[in-house]
């Protein structure tokens, strides 16, 4: 059985992009076909300016939403990254394997550091080294596959490079993983700015559908989505990114193909109505289950405690082997 690892960062409320690009695949496919681990990667949320109480709250909310979306503790392991110290133990060894040049080439680093500098903020060193910690997250579990949205594929590529380099230098220690990007909704775009990805930490929220948004808010955001000049509905991501984004969301929700769906519409209004209906049909059960789970915090705690125990027991042998391989003296 293949091993799968994936994670979600508690930098904001989970979005429709996180759901369609990642979580739904974890629920519908990954937990059934593999030994799958899903992690709330809270340490990654500290790479940008953060409010401690908010990160704590969002970590719990993210874990609860993963369960609400349908992850079953009997089928997969759900845990919080900072509860398993093997991640940071391994990250240091991988920092000794990576070069600063390859870190600076990461697109997310370039974008997020530029955003931070634009508002006069300090760029944390951890923002630069974040892909190394992500590599440790994956390699510690000897994961074969890493299901991710398009935006994370470069980081998985780096993880592969680090695994191969480490294995060549110090002897075979790590499994070399591969990224698995979903065919549809690999990149859900912001409804107000269809050239930017829908990101949970963005300050402008009008174009972002959050999983916990009330139904009328979801509908309003979709009905106000920026569309392109012209009025005919065609699927053309280059020339008509706004309409293409709506068609891709509708396709991801209903299982159709964006170009085929376009043929059913003669106005933007009808496309938006149907997209809103489809999104709400998908999200309502998740919202309902989330409310139930919030009323039972002991259950969520128990799932995370058991998840961390299992994750620790899986990661420790690999990380210990890496410590030995790189030349560190074992404790007596
Ligand atoms: N817009 C998106 N479309 C498709 N997939 C997406 N993912 C994120 N945004 C989209 C996928 O969701 C998973 C978890 O993402 P993450 O929390 O690890 O970090 P991220 O990719 O940086 O997500 P965000 O929402 O954009 O967060 P911020 O704003 O903090 O950077 C990943 O598999 C990701 O590909």
From TrEMBL:
<keyword id="KW-0547">Nucleotide-binding</keyword>
<comment type="similarity">
    <text>Belongs to the class-I aminoacyl-tRNA synthetase family.</text>
</comment>
<comment type="subunit">
    <text>Homodimer.</text>
</comment>
<keyword id="KW-0067">ATP-binding</keyword>
<feature type="binding site">
    <location>
        <begin position="9"/>
        <end position="11"/>
    </location>
    <ligand>
        <name>ATP</name>
    </ligand>
</feature>
<feature type="binding site">
    <location>
        <begin position="149"/>
        <end position="151"/>
    </location>
    <ligand>
        <name>ATP</name>
    </ligand>
</feature>
<dbReference type="InterPro" id="IPR024109">
    <property type="entry name" value="Trp-tRNA-ligase_bac-type"/>
</dbReference>
<feature type="binding site">
    <location>
        <begin position="17"/>
        <end position="18"/>
    </location>
    <ligand>
        <name>ATP</name>
    </ligand>
</feature>
<keyword id="KW-0963">Cytoplasm</keyword>
<dbReference type="InterPro" id="IPR002305">
    <property type="entry name" value="aa-tRNA-synth_Ic"/>
</dbReference>
<feature type="binding site">
    <location>
        <begin position="197"/>
        <end position="201"/>
    </location>
    <ligand>
        <name>ATP</name>
    </ligand>
</feature>
<feature type="binding site">
    <location>
        <position position="188"/>
    </location>
    <ligand>
        <name>ATP</name>
    </ligand>
</feature>
<feature type="short sequence motif" description="'KMSKS' region">
    <location>
        <begin position="197"/>
        <end position="201"/>
    </location>
</feature>
<protein>
    <recommendedName>
        <fullName>Tryptophan--tRNA ligase</fullName>
        <ecNumber>6.1.1.2</ecNumber>
    </recommendedName>
</protein>
<feature type="short sequence motif" description="'HIGH' region">
    <location>
        <begin position="10"/>
        <end position="18"/>
    </location>
</feature>
<dbReference type="InterPro" id="IPR014729">
    <property type="entry name" value="Rossmann-like_a/b/a_fold"/>
</dbReference>
<comment type="function">
    <text>Catalyzes the attachment of tryptophan to tRNA(Trp).</text>
</comment>
<dbReference type="GO" id="GO:0016874">
    <property type="term" value="F:ligase activity"/>
</dbReference>
<keyword id="KW-0648">Protein biosynthesis</keyword>
<dbReference type="Pfam" id="PF00579">
    <property type="entry name" value="tRNA-synt_1b"/>
</dbReference>
<keyword id="KW-0030">Aminoacyl-tRNA synthetase</keyword>
<dbReference type="InterPro" id="IPR001412">
    <property type="entry name" value="aa-tRNA-synth_I_CS"/>
</dbReference>
<feature type="binding site">
    <location>
        <position position="137"/>
    </location>
    <ligand>
        <name>L-tryptophan</name>
    </ligand>
</feature>
<dbReference type="InterPro" id="IPR002306">
    <property type="entry name" value="Trp-tRNA-ligase"/>
</dbReference>
<keyword id="KW-0436">Ligase</keyword>
<dbReference type="InterPro" id="IPR050203">
    <property type="entry name" value="Trp-tRNA_synthetase"/>
</dbReference>
């Amino acid at each position: 059985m293949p091993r799968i690892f994936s994670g979600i960062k508690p930098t904001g409320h989970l979005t429709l992009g996180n759901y369609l690009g990642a979580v739904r695949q974890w629920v519908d496919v990954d937990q059934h076909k593999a030994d799958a681990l899903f992690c709330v990667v809270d340490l990654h949320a500290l790479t940008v300016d953060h409010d401690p109480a908010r990160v704590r709250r969002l970590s719990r909310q993210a874990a609860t939403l993963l369960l609400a979306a349908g992850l079953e503790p009997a089928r997969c392991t759900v845990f919080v990254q900072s509860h398993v110290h093997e991640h940071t133990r391994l990250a240091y060894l991988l920092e000794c394997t990576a070069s600063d040049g390859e870190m600076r080439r990461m697109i997310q680093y370039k974008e997020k550091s530029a955003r931070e500098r634009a508002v006069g903020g300090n760029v944390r060193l951890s923002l630069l080294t974040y892909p190394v910690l992500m590599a440790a997250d994956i390699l510690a579990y000897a994961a074969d596959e890493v299901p991710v949205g398009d935006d994370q594929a470069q980081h998985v590529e780096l993880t592969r490079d680090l695994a191969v380099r480490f294995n060549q230098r110090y002897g075979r220690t790590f499994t070399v993983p591969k990224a698995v990007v979903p065919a549809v909704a690999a990149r859900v775009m912001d409804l107000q700015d269809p050239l930017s990805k829908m990101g949970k930490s963005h300050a402008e929220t009008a174009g972002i559908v959050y999983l916990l948004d009330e139904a009328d808010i979801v509908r309003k955001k979709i009905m106000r989505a920026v569309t392109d000049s012209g009025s005919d509905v065609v699927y053309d991501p280059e020339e008509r990114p706004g309409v293409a984004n709506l068609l891709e969301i509708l396709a991801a929700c209903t299982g159709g193909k964006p170009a085929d769906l376009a043929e059913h519409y003669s106005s933007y209004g009808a496309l938006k109505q149907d997209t809103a209906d489809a999104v709400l049909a998908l999200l309502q059960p998740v919202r309902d289950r989330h409310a139930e789970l919030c009323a039972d915090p002991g259950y969520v705690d128990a799932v995370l405690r058991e998840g961390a125990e299992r994750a620790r027991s899986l990661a420790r042998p690999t990380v210990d082997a890496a410590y030995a391989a790189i030349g560190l003296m074992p404790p007596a």
